[in-house]
Design brief:
Elements: H1 2-5, H2 9-16, H3 20-29, E1 39-43, H4 49-58, E2 62-67, H5 70-82, E3 89-93, E4 106-112, H6 121-131, E5 132-143, H7 151-171, H8 176-186, H9 191-200, E6 203-210, E7 215-221
Parallel strand pairs: 1-2, 1-4, 2-3, 4-5
Antiparallel strand pairs: 5-7, 6-7
Helix pairs in contact: 6-9, 7-8
């Protein structure tokens, strides 16, 4: 599915969120400014937008992006080459729940709109914890479920009616943009996700709500 939509993924992200996704990424990356990470991992990197934001704001020495979709990685590689960032940013095929890196390797780990796609969420969080250095920080950006009237009702209508229509129109994939609201609805957001982070070992875990609760930033320290 992600291979099928890779060519229109960036456009649809910006179009369907009215560009707010760009602001969400900037705000999430700024959560890492205080620790000045040098070596970073971007999990479920997709087309690389979160990593590019990290390069712009944090100026790290190296970022590795991993994703299971070769189609998404092809787009990311083209963007890396176009921006001459091969010396900083590299991408590779990888399973988010079985990362091929040594323990205590990265200063910071980022994930944008990826954890809700994990088959085993606890296993994925535990593996990211494993490869993070002691005192390293994780920043996760993910959709959440608004709970207040009338945002909840408006969001549900947009997610279940408007988003699948335009997603199908532009991406030519019937399932991709009905999958998105389904995966958001099934994701254990808020306190439930914080409990999972704490369970695998993260400390000082917190949840920052964005845009009336449509999205959230989760952070934790190893």
């Amino acid at each position: 599915m992600f291979n099928n939509i890779s060519g229109t993924y960036d456009f649809l992200n910006h179009f369907l969120s009215l560009g707010i996704d760009i602001l969400w990424r900037k705000k999430a990356i700024k959560e890492l400014k205080a620790i000045k990470p040098r070596i970073m991992l971007d999990v479920a990197t997709g087309t690389g937008d979160f990593a590019f934001e990290a390069i712009s704001i944090l100026k790290p020495e190296k970022i590795i992006g991993v994703d299971i979709s070769e189609g998404m990685l092809d787009v990311a590689r083209k963007k890396i080459n176009d921006r001459n960032l091969q010396h900083i940013f590299s991408v590779q095929m990888g399973d988010s729940e079985g990362l091929h890196f040594s323990d205590d390797h990265f200063d910071a780990i980022t994930v944008a709109f990826g954890v809700r796609n994990y088959q085993n969420l606890e296993k994925g969080l535990a593996d990211m914890y494993r490869v993070l250095k002691p005192e390293g920080k994780i920043v996760i950006l993910e959709f959440s479920k608004p709970r207040a009237f009338p945002v909840k009702q408006g969001y549900n209508f947009y997610s279940n009616q408007v988003l699948p229509f335009f997603g199908k129109l532009f991406s030519k994939d019937n399932s991709a943009y009905t999958y998105l609201p389904e995966s958001v609805a099934a994701f254990p957001d808020g306190e439930d996700f914080i409990k999972l982070m704490n369970k695998v070992g993260f400390k000082k875990s917190k949840d920052i709500r964005l845009t009336f609760g449509i999205c959230a930033i989760y952070t934790g320290i190893k």
